[in-house]
Automatic annotation (TrEMBL):
It is found in: Cytoplasm. The lineage of its organism: Archaea, Methanobacteriati, Methanobacteriota, Stenosarchaea group, Halobacteria. Belongs to the GPI family. Keywords: Cytoplasm, Gluconeogenesis, Glycolysis, Isomerase. It comes from Halorubrum aquaticum. This is Probable glucose-6-phosphate isomerase.
Length: 428
């Protein structure tokens, strides 16, 4: 992974070389803190050890009973789904991957009706083993399998923490089960059992993903000038401090569209606290050049744009044409066009003094993805250190979880009482 922060210098808001020098002392301190956390396997920091601590053999052994499934259906939400979905959507496989990460009845019913349930592996994932959406969806899936005459106990893999409802279910039915590693919050779990079981079921090279993660680990250093991940974390932090409160995250590859969703959870849930944070806005190049870019370039000066792309990709030639005015396209390729659009967006933002950062990988493959995902996690942890927020907790999300559970009669939660306090000002 390479990061180019040149277009964040001298912009509005923007940085100077002197700011970066001053910031670099703080990066060195933050790097020390992160290294200590990793050495002690502290909660959250342990995630940055996963490229070395994850056990690909255990993952392979757990998926082995499901020889060549037609599809994998993951039931999970948030960090228990987005990492696996990022890899699944980035890499091609003959085994289709589906994700039930919402409880919209129409969508759930439609998906279940479309799947050959006797050929599907159900991968149910919940770190806590208590998340209402995941468990409810799993109960629905289980019943649909039973209705279709499929023995769900033969086709279900569980990934969960040490205790909780899901752990008990796995034990009761003797289901193949993987452990969510200690000290790893969901949004930092892509390089663990949580993110990699689907990749293994799809036949991807899990070792290569972890090797990419180790490339990312090796490139952490006590200076933002030496570490791409820390350059990204420090730059985004410093820009946020100066008013860039939105980070428009814009991959130029459809295969990385879900990566932007994963990034949004990582950034929002980790850094949005104590009145601080930077709102991740998901965009896709070149499509959103024709919509959102207007705002990014000409709206309030409260944004930075992160442009992500692979340097190499499979390409398609654009046929020659004698249509007047279009001959410049003929003989070129769709990839050339996408690269030109990328360069044009970058230049258009820079010309309007909008800070933008370029993140590049060689190509979309297992190793590069492992490094990219690790790099963004490390960037996020560094940002959290610089901002002095508690990166690995999510009290605001949990507040809502408790309120919803209370409303459904799942326990006595004071948060649920606040629902009755809703203010009304109706216009019919
Ligand atoms: O894995 P689970 O315990 O089911 O949690 C799934 C998700 O639930 C919550 O909303 C958390 O804030 C997320 O970070 C987490 O990834």
């Amino acid at each position: 992974m390479e990061v180019d922060i040149g277009n964040a210098l001298g912009t509005q808001p923007g940085l100077t070389e002197e700011t970066l020098d001053r910031l670099d002392d703080r990066v060195a301190d933050a790097d020390d803190r992160i290294a200590r956390g990793m050495a002690d396997d502290e909660f959250g920091y342990a995630s940055l050890n996963l490229p070395e601590t994850a056990d690909p053999a255990a993952i392979r052994a757990a998926v082995e009973p499901f020889d060549e499934p037609e599809a994998v259906l993951t039931v999970g939400i948030g960090g228990s789904a987005l990492g696996a979905a990022t890899l699944a959507d980035a890499l091609e496989s003959d085994v289709d991957a589906y994700f039930l990460d919402n409880v919209d009845p129409d969508a759930v019913d439609a998906l279940l009706a479309s799947l050959p349930l006797e050929e599907v592996v159900v991968n149910v994932v919940s770190r806590s083993g208590t998340t209402a959406e995941t468990l409810a969806n799993f109960l629905v899936v289980r019943e649909a399998m039973a209705d279709a005459g499929v023995d769900w106990t033969e086709r279900t893999l569980v990934t969960t923490g040490e205790s909780g409802n899901l752990r008990r279910l796995a034990e009761t039915h003797d289901l193949p089960a993987l452990d969510v590693p200690e000290g790893v919050p969901g949004r930092f779990s892509v390089l663990s059992t949580v993110g990699l079981a689907v990749a293994a079921l799809q036949g991807h090279d899990v070792e290569a993903v972890l090797a990419g993660g180790r490339d990312g680990m090796a490139s952490l250093a006590g200076s933002l000038r030496e570490s791409p991940a820390y350059a990204y974390g420090a730059t985004t932090y410093a820009l946020a401090e100066r008013g860039a409160l939105t980070n428009a995250f814009m991959p130029y590859s459809e295969s990385l569209e879900t990566f932007a969703e994963w990034f949004a959870q990582l950034w929002a849930e980790s850094l949005g606290k104590d009145g601080l944070g930077q709102t991740p806005a998901r965009a896709l190049g070149a499509t959103d050049q024709h919509s959102q870019l207007q705002l990014y370039r000409a709206g309030p000066a409260d944004k930075l744009v992160t442009l992500v792309r692979p340097r190499e990709r499979a390409d398609s030639r654009i046929p020659e044409t004698d249509l007047e005015g279009l001959s410049y396209l003929g003989g070129s390729s769709l990839g050339d066009l996408l690269d030109a659009e990328f360069a044009a967006t970058e230049a258009s933002l820079a010309a309007a003094d909008v800070p933008n950062v370029r993140v590049e990988i060689d190509r979309v493959d297992e190793r590069a993805l492992g490094e990219l995902l690790y790099g963004m996690e490390a960037a996020c942890v560094l940002y959290g250190e610089l901002a002095s927020v508690s990166t690995f907790t999510q009290p605001a999300v949990e507040w809502g979880k408790k309120a919803a559970r209370g409303l459904l009669g799942g326990g006595d939660f004071p948060e649920a009482e606040a629902v009755a306090d809703k203010r009304e000002f109706r216009i019919d």
